[in-house]
Design a protein that fits this description.
The structure is a homodimer. The radius of gyration of chain A is 16 Å and the shape is globular. Chain A is α/β, with parallel strands linked by helices. The relative contact order of chain A is 0.19. Chain A has a single domain, classed as 3-Layer(aba) Sandwich (Rossmann fold), CATH 3.40.50.300. Chain A contains 8 helices and 8 strands. In chain A, helix 7 links the parallel strand 7 and strand 8. In chain A, strands 1-4-3-5-2-6-7-8 form an 8-stranded parallel sheet, with helices on both faces. At the A-B interface, helix 5 of A face helix 5 of B.
Amino acid sequence: MAYKIIDIKESVYEDNDQDAALLRAELKDKGVYLLNIMSSPGSGKTTTLVATLKRLCGEMSIAVMEADIDSDVDAATVEAAGAKAIQLHTGGMCHLDADMTRQGIRALGTEGVDLAVLENIGNLVCPAEFDTGAAKNCVILSVPEGDDKPLKYPLMFTVADVLLVNKIDVMPYFDFDLDKLTERARKLNPKVEIIPVSAKTGEGIDQWCDWLRKEVRAWKE
Amino acid sequence: MAYKIIDIKESVYEDNDQDAALLRAELKDKGVYLLNIMSSPGSGKTTTLVATLKRLCGEMSIAVMEADIDSDVDAATVEAAGAKAIQLHTGGMCHLDADMTRQGIRALGTEGVDLAVLENIGNLVCPAEFDTGAAKNCVILSVPEGDDKPLKYPLMFTVADVLLVNKIDVMPYFDFDLDKLTERARKLNPKVEIIPVSAKTGEGIDQWCDWLRKEVRAWKE
């Protein structure tokens, strides 16, 4: 086990938005693009991340923070896929804010890193309320969860910059209408980029990686 | 639209456990069995509940509280299935505690009710931390979420009295090992009752309803 496990502490800052803006500016100065990945438990955050690492690790330096309540299943998986990884233990807390993210960034070390990824706690509610300081928010919704989720968890879909609709390989076995989902998500958030993918079969992952490549490149300009 | 929508307020009680014990005793006195259903978003709480109502509404009086951040999709669905229903809006809060549940119970009215159901916020983290005053906790995990969830959200599986493993109709399309799930859940919680179901096809729902019937009967003795 090469990765570190970090117990992060609750933030002492009162103004998280201000703190997040500061962290974002610090990362911009260093040329580190931070992506915050959020979803329900079981939507496929780790599997999607592993598929992404397999395509991008050869062309840029990637470091991953796996936030989890108390397991370390994901850091091991991500490290096996070739990225530098640390595990953040939130001690029962249901989200990460900017200061908690900064604690992770410091422990991770971002010297020479092009892309840092925060895999947030699996939760469609609380993480949406806290700006982590990331350049962009990626939300993953999987087909089995249903196309009505933007109606029920509106804030999460409002703060998303890119929405990956995962597990499209099982679309035939579920009542899931991609057009309805798109309409519901765009009603909350007209600019959101929506990319259907299957982390399992690889479908759509190239398109997603193209989006991410462009983002990382633009961030460094 | 016959159902009420209630905006619940944050609890003022410091000791939620004590308050929950009090609410449980009050409900016991009235012969009202309160079931707290928790799961991730999209695990099938509402669909399972509707399948349950269809079987049990003819033999007992059932009332349902649908907690949601701000939609009212579920109360309408549940009412159409024949139960008395109210919608609880938590105003962004990610869980319900005992006092919030009591506000719902009061608005619902439990005169003559045998079974009251609280459909908690879709979230595998925060709701597990708050005793709602329910007689029992039902946790739903669906097959597409994966058999590793007890490792990652241990508290939820620790507080479960009954675990419904939903969407077993799609088992062939996912890498999901029911034996592994059972072992992981029982390691945290040796007494948990585990019932595989498909709310869609009806498989296992009779066994689940039998469990619930026995519970409601025993509560009134």
